[in-house]
Amino acid sequence: MALLNPTRLTGRPAAVTVGDQSMSGDDLLEAATAVARQIAGADTVAVDATTSLDTVVALTGCLLAGTTLVPVPPDAGPVERGHILRDSGAQLLLGPNPTRPVGSGSDQGGSDQGGPGQRRTVGSDAPALILYTSGTTGAPKGVPVTSANIAADLDALAEAWAWTPDDTLVHGLPLFHVHGLVLGVIGALRVGCRLVHTGRPTPGAYAAAGGTLYFGVPTIWSRICDDRPSARALRAARLLVSGSAALPAPVFRTLTELTGQAPVERYGMTETLITVSSRADGERRPGWVGTPLAGVHTRLASEDGEQLPADGETIGELQVRGPMVFDGYLGAAGRGDFTPDGWFRTGDVAAIDQAGWHRIVGRASTDLIKSGGYRIGAGEVENVLLTHPAVREAAVIGAPDADLGQRVVAYVVAEGVSPQSLIDFVATELSTHKRPREVRIVDDLPRNAMGKVQKKLLHDDRR
Ligand code: MCA
Ligand code: AMP
Fold first, then answer.
1. Which element (helix H / strand E) includes 201?
2. Dist. CA 378 → ligand 2 center (Å)
3. Is the CB of 320 under 6 A from ligand 2?
4. Which residue stretches of 169-306 are H helix?
């Protein structure tokens, strides 16, 4: 399935702006066609997903060529980067340096496990993207996302948000996750609207961009509320959309007051893309993320799998089905958490009311942390801390944070090392956003009779 219709891009001046650089639709198609030629023969191509026009061109080239793209967080340290390149089987790496085969120079990530450059079968079901996302333990898992998944999601969102070529979409999100890359770039290209990426998502940059449609994570909206002149400048926009994490009700209310319009909230996951949203032409409720998109079915289940009533009060695990839901993780990461009758178990706890409105209450596992809208697995951070020679034990939690929603806090049993040097160590090995914002050196970790760390006691310690 073709995701892009080149005729929607031709003849468009300044179709895409990233920071202070712009490209017309014709120049984008020409540069992307050159990329498509350059990568001919490769079935999987990694790209250093810097916030730049280069990333937009590489993505467009891969979409035109039908080549699977693997966006690599540009600040990923050797552990994370090596894992992504090996696990995805990418054969080429596009980025600020000239295109080169994966495995040349430092891109092996210091290990030869699995071997880079393994080829996957090209076929009609080859994914358009492989996105890496954190689980509760271990290294990030590859999520293959097909063109059909993306097309179904974007078309349903365009309908819900009345998103048209007349819009100017503005955001400042990273280009290696669903929010910034799938919605924020492929969405704009598929709809054929102008895209302005602000670079860092500062309130001033959002205010100056003059868009009609804005995307942001709750941390961005909360910072905009703290900068009243910038918030007021958004009065001219048509739609403000929040997602990737829970939007606190006070931020919803302040944003409504300052911009003259209530934000549209939507809910999703890397594995399912966006499945639930409020609508441009409908009600918006603080604390609620809306109703299922076209083609999506949702239900609530108890811990033992019994279906629960959608009465607005009962809470249970949210399960989803729909054409945007993935079909299983890449390789050894397994099929993923599907019920025997084919519903994806999101791991989120929710309530659904009789009108189909969804309220996300939290996550079933406290080992998946949401910080600034980024999903961070406690286990991945603990594993890296444990590779530091001074560290004997480590337990990582997400503590409440007024700016980030949650912040990564590590409790560490260690000698002869400062908290800051452990923070810097994680920032060097993994993507910087996964670093603990706080490290507490302790004598021991609270454990139960089985020897398992009792993270609940660490959480209680934060309250
Ligand atoms: C700080 N820095 C360091 C260190 N500490 N560098 C090295 N070592 C250190 N110890 C640097 C960083 O690299 C960065 O540099 C700068 O300091 C600030 O980084 P940080 O503190 O992380 O930024 P922040 O202000 O806390 O960022 C807030 C943010 C960000 C902008 C809201 O969290 C963000 O972009 N969030 C978006 C997440 C997202 O898109 N999630 C979507 C996934 P420099 O200045 O050079 O960069 S969810 C999804 O896709 C689904 C399906 C959905 O529902 O949407
Ligand atoms: P990721 O795969 O990084 O997109 O993370 C997905 C998770 O983000 C979901 O399972 C939810 O826990 C959380 N999430 C995404 N959107 C929302 C939202 N609008 N409200 C509350 N949580 C959200």
1. none
2. 16
3. no
4. 187-191, 203-208, 218-225, 228-233, 249-259
CB-based contact 349:314 (threshold 8 Å) = no
150 lines ligand 2 (CB under 6 A): no
**407 CB within 6 A, ligand 2:** no
H/E stretch holding 300: strand 297-301
Instruction: Tell whether the model's pLDDT for residue 115 goes beyond 50.
Output: no
Tell the residue nearest (CA) to atom 26 of ligand 1.
372
Residue 114 pLDDT: 37
Confidence of residue 106 (pLDDT cuts 50, 70, 90): low
Pocket test for ligand 1, best of 130, 183, 198, 433 (most atoms within 8 A of CB): 433
Say if residues 62 and 37 touch (Cβ distance below 8 Å). Answer: no
Tens-place pLDDT, residues 255-302: 999 999 999 999 999 999 999 999 999 999 999 999 999 999 999 999
**pTM attached to this predicted model:** 0.94
CA 125 – CA 135 distance, rounded (Å)? 25
What is the C-alpha separation between 144 and 132, in angstroms, rounded? 9
For residue 106, the tally of other CB atoms under 10 A from its CB is 9
